[in-house]
Design goal:
single chain; alpha/beta; 3-stranded mixed beta sheet; 25% helix
């Protein structure tokens, strides 16, 4: 028989005064959403900065990443190389999951309930689990830029709700805003990028949500294509392709894909910047690494020169072969939905 609550337990309730109505004013003033997050939602959801990574979700590469249709219209599908070998892609993706588990990180499986489809037909880049963008308190749900990505947000939203993660905001209207357009540098700093994949409307919709979470927002600017395909397009889409936080005052950047004013700004607030070698960045995108905690990263490879660069700066590097996965258009950070981190360092406090 279930034990019945007693009057003594009421003393645990904020705003309780015997014989009085709930003391709403004090309760609402003193108790934050985050104070009750774990009790209500079952987990302290949030991957705010670069505190120790505790929980992620990943989705196994599906056949939708290797359709021959992409070779018929490569420019439209932003496809500039050969199709990945699905078996090798899955093997490398599984090896990344195992690397996380060896680090003590819980890896959840984000499984599509059906063959994922956009509103118009095929859905490319379904493997990009980072479409689930979780900050302190819950998730921001994207509105995707390309028609063959759009609708991924529905699957992501349904998955996050299934595991109990709150949805803080869903981009709508004419706003376009994808999670990859943002790089969480620290608990109080995020780099956003206006690009093909994040327009002004989308950014202004999520700005108050990010600011309420405690971020200062730096806005970078990107070039973009008009008619022709350019191999730089993946770096022009998302800031997480060209900048990676390594500590609260150290970052890896690839300057050809970012605006110089961003470099000026980062240096002005105390960042030391390491430059990713061109050949490796353009082949396996090591800047799309995951920071496990300050000065410990999991990085796509093979990228021996980038690894040596980071190690000379005092960063421990766990390298995973990802040269087959990258052929779909994203690397380690793109395929990882970060769900829970410990509180981490700040830049401004």
């Amino acid at each position: 028989m279930e034990e019945q609550p007693t009057a003594h337990e009421l003393t645990r309730f904020p705003g309780f005064v015997s014989g009085h109505v709930p003391q709403y004013s004090e309760y609402h003033e003193e108790v934050d959403f985050l104070d009750e997050l774990e009790a209500i939602w079952g987990e302290r959801w949030g991957a705010q900065g670069i505190g120790r990574l505790r929980k992620v979700a990943m989705t196994t590469p599906l056949e939708v990443e290797v359709l021959p249709l992409y070779e018929q219209e490569p420019a439209f599908f932003l496809y500039g190389g050969r199709l990945p070998d699905l078996g090798k892609m899955r093997d490398q993706h599984a090896a990344l999951q195992e690397a996380y588990r060896r680090l003590g990180i819980e890896v959840l499986s984000f499984d599509y309930p059906e063959t994922p489809r956009s509103p118009y037909g095929v859905m490319k880049r379904a493997v990009s689990a980072a479409a689930g963008f979780v900050i302190n308190g819950g998730a921001i749900i994207a509105r995707e830029a390309a028609p063959f990505w759009r609708g991924r947000s529905r699957y992501v939203s349904q998955y996050l709700q299934s595991i109990g993660c709150p949805i803080l905001y869903t981009v709508h209207g004419k706003g376009v805003c994808e999670g990859g357009a943002f790089t969480r540098m620290a608990d109080d700093l995020i780099v956003a990028m206006l690009s093909t994949d994040c327009n002004r409307d989308g950014l202004e919709q999520v700005r108050p949500v990010l600011e309420r979470a405690g971020y200062r927002i730096w806005v970078a600017h990107s070039p973009g294509p008009l008619h022709e395909f350019h191999p730089e397009i993946p770096g022009w889409m998302h800031s997480d392709m060209w900048i990676a936080p390594l500590d609260h005052d150290l970052a890896l950047v690839y300057p050809p894909w970012c605006d110089f004013e961003t470099i000026r700004y980062l240096r002005s607030i105390g960042y030391r910047l390491l430059e990713a070698p061109r050949g490796e960045q353009e082949s396996v995108t090591p800047a799309n690494l995951i920071t496990i905690e300050p000065r410990l990263v999991v990085m796509p490879g093979p990228a021996p020169n980038t690894r040596a660069l980071l190690e000379r700066a005092g960063v421990e590097v766990i390298e995973v072969e990802y040269d087959e996965v990258i052929l779909y258009g994203g690397a380690v950070r793109c395929t990882t939905m970060q769900l829970v981190r410990d509180p981490g360092p700040s830049v401004f406090s």
